[in-house]
Amino acid sequence: MDAIYVHLRAKAREILASLPTPAFYSDNAAAVDLSRVFFNGDPVVSELRDIVAGRIENDFGHGLEHAVKVTLDAGAIMLLEGEQAEFSEAYTFRRVRLAQCAGLLHDIVRKQDDHAIRSAAVAKQVLSAFKLAPEEIEDVCMAIRNHEAFKDPVDIPSFEGNLLADTLYDADKFRWGPDNFYYTVWDMVDYHCVPLEQFVEQYPTGIARLAEIRESF
Fold it and tell me: What is the spatial distance between Cα 81 and Cα 181, in angstroms, rounded to a whole number?
C-alpha cells in the first residue's frame, strides 16, 4: 500500500476511535449482552460457527469477523423485536437462533456474483443437516436472499419471516459506517491499485452512496 494510503487509513481509524459508541449498544446493553451469551452457548449456533469459519470467503473485510459482528447484532435486535411483538420467551429465543444462523451465513460466498442468492442456496444446504423446521430454514434463506442494499427484495408472506429478514438487514447495515472506514475502502484501493487522484475524485460520490443506506432501514 502506498504511503499516502497508509497515512489516510491511519487517520480514518483515528477518527473512528474518537467517536462515541453508537447509542444502540448503550441503550440496549442487556439485549446486546444476552445475544453474546446465546451466541457462545447455543449448540446449533456454535456448531454452525465452526462450519462457517472453515468455509467463509473473506472479501474486503466481509469475512468471519464481519459475520460474527452481524450475528451478535442480529441476535440483539431479535430479542428487542420479540419483546415488542409479545412473543413468548421460548419462541423469542428460537427466533434469535435463526437470526444468528442468518448472520453467520449471509456472506458465506461473498466473492461470488449475486452473493445473496448464492449464499441463501448454500445456507439451505448447510442448515438441512440441523434439527430445524423446514419453515425455519426457509425464513433464514429468505432473509439472506434479501439482505443486499438497493435491490428489490423478494416477497416474504409471513410477519415472522419479514421480521427475520429486516433484523438481518439492519444488523448487516450497522457495519457499513465503521467497517467501511476501518477495513473495506483501504483494502479495495490497495487491491485494485487505485491512483490517489481517482480516489479523491470518487470519494464524495462514495460517501453520498453510503448515506443513502439510512433510508433503507
Answer: 29
CATH number at residue 104: 1.10.3210.10
Q: How does pLDDT run across 34-69, given as a tens digit for each residue?
A: 999 999 999 999 999 999 999 998 777 778 999 999
Distance CA 148, CA 111 (A): 14
CA atoms within 13 A on the CB side of 207: 7
Which of these, 119, 82, 85, 115, lies nearest to 102 by C-alpha position?
119
Tens digit of each residue's pLDDT (9 = 90 or more) over 138-154: 999 999 999 998 888 99
Contact by Cβ (8 Å): 45, 39:
yes
Contact in structure between 160 and 138 (CB atoms under 8 Å)? no
Measured distance CA(162)–CA(158) in Å, rounded: 6
Dihedral sign for Cα atoms in the order 180, 68, 48, 79: negative
Judge if 9 and 40 occupy the same domain.
no
Give the whole-angstrom CA distance, residue 119 versus residue 144: 7
